[in-house]
Each structure stands twice: as C-alpha cells, then as structure tokens.
C-alpha cells in the first residue's frame, strides 16, 4: 500500500519511537476494512515496537493508536493518508513518548482542563488545512486523559457526512454537536474550551524595540531581520502563516521550484524560532496608539509597549455581500477548492470570480463536480490566458460573464444562486449545491485607528522604508498599498520595514 519512498520516510520516524505502540483496530470484511488492515500490518512490520490487536470500536473500519498499556484517546476512522499522513506519524511519536512541540503555557492550559471532552473531526485527505486541526486535537488527547479525538475521513464515511450535513472541512464536533469549522490553531481550539490565556502571562513583558503584529510572510521576515540586529523583538500572532496557509501549490518562490503553503510556513516558523523572538501566538490585537512609546492593546486587555511596531496583518477573502452569504458559510459556501472540493463530487456548483484564483478553482473542481458554472462580474475573464485556455477545454464548465450575483438560497444548505445578466437585466437562477467565492482579498486593517493613513481600499500607506505616517509605526505585506500581492514581495517588504524600524531607532 505504501510506496518505497513513503516507507523509507516512515522508517526514519519509526526509529525515533521512544516506547511501544499498539494499534487497536476494528475491522470488518468490507474493502475499506481490508485496506485499513493492510495499512496497519504494513506499518507494524516495519518496527518491533508496534503491534496490532483487534477490538470492537464505534466505527468500522477504525483504529486507536495506544501506548503499550492504557489508551491515548487518539482514533483514526479511515486511512490517514494524503495530507493526514503527517498527522499519523506525529501521533505515533507523541503516543510513544516524544513531547509535542507547543508552547509551555499552552500545554499547561490543556493539562488543566477538568472535563470529559470527545472531539470528532471530519476531514478530506486533499485538505491541507485539516492536519492543523487533527494534530492539535491529537496533542490535547495525548496531554490530557479526559480528552479524546477521532479523525473521520469523509470519503470513507460519506453517509455520516451527508447525515450531519458537513459541507466544509475540517469540521469538528464536540459531544455530537458542531463545535468549529475551518482551519484553527491549537491556541484557538484551547481558547474555545478553556478561555483565553490569563493576562498574568504577559506581566513580565519589558518594552520591545520592535513588536511585529501578524504572522504571515511579511511578519516573519520582519521579526527575523529585526532579531538579527540584536534588538528586543516580539511577535503578536493570531494564527501563524496567514493567507499562505490557504495556498496549496507555490511555484514562484525563487529558488524553490515547488512547495505548499502549510509546509512553507512551518519552515518559516522554525526559522523565526532560531532567533530570540518573543512569539506570542493566539493573540488578537484590537488597538494601537502612539504616546512616548507605541502601545499595542490585545483583545484580552493587555497593553504591550514598544519603541517601534510593524503592522503585517495581511488580508482575507473579499465578501460578495449578498443575502445568504453569511447564512450558508460552511453550508455550501466555500473558499478553498482543495479542502472542500471532494465534498461536492458529482454535484453542480458555482465559482464566483474570473481572476486567476477563481479559474484555478474551477479547473480543479471540474475534475470532481458534475458541472461548474463560473460567474464573472466584468464582460471578460481576468485570469491569465493559459488558465483560460485550459478552462475552455473542459466540457463540464460554463462561463457566465456580466453576471451580478444577487442571492444564495436554500434550506439547511445551499440549493440555488440567483444572478442578473448586466447586459440584458434578466434574472437567472442556477440550481447548485455549492458556491466557491474567489474575488480577491481585503486588507485586515478595519481595526486600525484613523490616525494611521489608509488609501480608499483600506490599505496602509507606506513609504520606501515601510514607514507609515505615524512616527515609529511601520507596515509590510498585503495590508499595505504594495502594488502586487505576492509571497516573495511580502517577505521583501517585511525585511524593508524591519530595516526601516532599526534605522529609525538608531536615529531617534
């Protein structure tokens, strides 16, 4: 079942097992059970520290990953292949005794949870956001015996997916009720259960020389460049990685012919941690102001002081602002074709947006869906010609230009999209089960005070040194008026802002 390259990779990790492991498997005579059994036996044959035993579990096929004695609380219902193969490997290492790589204060929060919690996460093996959630909940199960977690592969348990009306992955259920949907960090998941990190954890923070707000490519680059100058550097991060975490294939990062967003940002985070950077994850900033110093106020009320600040808050997908958009989010409205596309296999769907992102999504989705409608507001598509040529070759795609979306409607989930032909003013309704919205990005700057200059698009105005109009406050990346929004440009602008901040500090 595993190819030679995968087995060679797995063998290296199995050598790191610190204790014995038992796969406790519930298997039937169906084809999926046979595949699961074959997978488990193949892995077990590679290490004398792994054994396989049979049990009757709530789902068949499924298997628990347990230490030699006792239970870990980790269960996989379905084969953990694709993007979830990493989740499987990490589960083996952590159950066998290797400590998970999380911040000590987060581990303490998890261990202090004093209630029985059983999480279930529905995933797609093509979803690059799902492993973050699966791995986070597995860590919580390893650290706290009152917590358990089951990963459920949606393709193998399609009946459950339809019964629970799961229209986006990852979707997490807690005690049988929907708990969360979409990519979440371990800090965010713990906060939903145990509340925010106590403000006392920030009591000993001295004044920073540079405080970076944001954890995408621009923020990470800023922190690295600042720390390399030997000045006191901090990062306030809601979720590390930013929009890059939503990007599957990256082929234009110079020197790296191909990588994937989550992999790239994991490497970037490790790079940041090689320096003396005070990384404060899972924290949202709600205000910034200039006094003698720059004050950055967190959502928990804590105020951090710094001599300079770099705003690198990135951007988010633009809304279309029509009735039904908010109501059906994760109930048929989606933004990531790689993650949620498999849930719409054999169905009719719509893609709103004729730029590169929209056309790339339509091409991907055409391999799964019965039919794809592409709606573009303008008279012609805006995507690169090579993408338009590929799209035109697909027989199950219909392109509709001059289309103004009016409403997305349905019952428990999306059932239809209504639009107006801007040329004839005629109204049309498409019977679709899903709508993917990809119409560009909006800067995450709505929380900023009016004292910081922004252009009409809400982007922070910066000069050639990354400086804003407020002395001591700099900005970088997609939240600024940078002409082009690219990973490599964000990294460069982060470096520029850090060097600009350092120059400001030595001159002031």
UniProtKB/TrEMBL annotation:
Gene Ontology molecular function terms on file: flavin adenine dinucleotide binding; NAD binding; NADH-dependent peroxiredoxin activity; oxidoreductase activity, acting on a sulfur group of donors, NAD(P) as acceptor
Residues involved in FAD binding: 209-224, 468-478
GO BP of this protein: response to reactive oxygen species
PROSITE patterns per UniProt: GLUTAREDOXIN_2, PYRIDINE_REDOX_2
Keyword Magnesium: no
Domain FAD/NAD(P)-binding: 208-492
Binding site for NAD(+): 348-362
Disulfide bonds: 336-339
Family indicated by similarity: Belongs to the class-II pyridine nucleotide-disulfide oxidoreductase family.
Database matches in NCBIfam families: AhpF (TIGR03140)
Name of the protein described by the UniProt record: Alkyl hydroperoxide reductase, F subunit
Lineage: Bacteria, Bacillati, Bacillota, Bacilli, Lactobacillales
């Amino acid at each position: 079942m595993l190819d030679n390259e995968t087995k060679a990779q797995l063998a290296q990790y199995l050598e790191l097992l610190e204790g014995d492991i038992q796969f406790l498997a519930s298997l039937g005579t169906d084809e999926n059970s046979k595949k699961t059994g074959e997978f488990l036996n193949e892995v077990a044959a590679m290490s004398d520290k792994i054994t396989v035993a049979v049990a009757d579990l709530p789902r068949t096929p499924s298997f628990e990953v347990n230490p030699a004695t006792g239970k870990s609380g980790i269960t996989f219902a379905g084969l953990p292949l694709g993007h979830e193969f990493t989740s499987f490997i990490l589960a083996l290492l952590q159950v066998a005794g290797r400590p998970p790589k999380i911040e000590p204060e987060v581990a303490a929060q998890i261990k202090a949870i004093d209630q029985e919690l059983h999480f279930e996460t529905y995933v797609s093996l093509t979803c690059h956001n799902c492993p973050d959630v699966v791995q986070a909940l597995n860590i919580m199960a390893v650290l706290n015996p009152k917590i358990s977690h089951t990963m459920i592969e949606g393709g193998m348990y399609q009946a459950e997916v339809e019964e629970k009306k799961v229209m986006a992955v990852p979707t997490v259920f807690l005690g049988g009720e929907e708990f969360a949907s979409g990519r979440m960090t371990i800090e965010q998941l713990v906060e939903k259960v145990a509340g925010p990190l106590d403000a006392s954890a920030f009591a000993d923070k001295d004044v920073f020389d540079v405080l970076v707000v944001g954890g995408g490519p621009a923020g990470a680059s800023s922190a690295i460049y600042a720390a390399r100058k030997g000045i006191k550097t901090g990062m306030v991060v809601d979720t590390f990685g930013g929009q890059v975490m939503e990007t599957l294939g990256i082929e234009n990062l110079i020197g790296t012919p191909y990588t994937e967003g989550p992999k790239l940002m994991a490497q970037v985070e490790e790079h940041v941690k090689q320096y003396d950077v005070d990384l404060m994850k899972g924290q949202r900033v709600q205000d910034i102001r200039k006094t003698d110093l720059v004050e950055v106020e967190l959502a928990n009320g804590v105020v951090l002081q710094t001599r300079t600040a770099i705003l690198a808050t990135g951007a988010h997908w633009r809304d279309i602002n029509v009735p039904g958009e908010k109501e059906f989010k994760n109930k048929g409205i989606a933004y990531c074709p790689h993650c949620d596309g498999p849930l719409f296999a054999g169905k009719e769907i719509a893609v709103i947006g004729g730029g590169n992102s929209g056309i790339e999504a339509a091409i991907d989705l055409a391999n799964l869906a019965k039919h794809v409608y592409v709606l573009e507001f303008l008279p012609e598509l805006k995507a690169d010609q090579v993408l338009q040529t590929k799209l035109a070759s697909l027989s199950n795609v219909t392109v509709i230009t001059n289309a103004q979306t009016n409403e997305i409607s349905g019952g428990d989930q999306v059932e239809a999209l209504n639009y107006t032909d801007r040329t004839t003013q005629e109204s049309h309704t498409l019977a679709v089960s899903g709508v993917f919205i990809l119409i560009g990005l909006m800067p995450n700057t709505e929380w900023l005070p009016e004292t910081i200059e922004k252009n009409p698009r809400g982007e922070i105005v910066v000069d050639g040194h990354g400086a804003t109009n407020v002395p001591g406050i700099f900005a970088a990346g997609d939240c600024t008026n940078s002409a082009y929004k690219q990973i490599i440009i964000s990294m460069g602008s982060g470096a520029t802002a850090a060097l600009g901040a350092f120059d400001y500090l030595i001159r002031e």
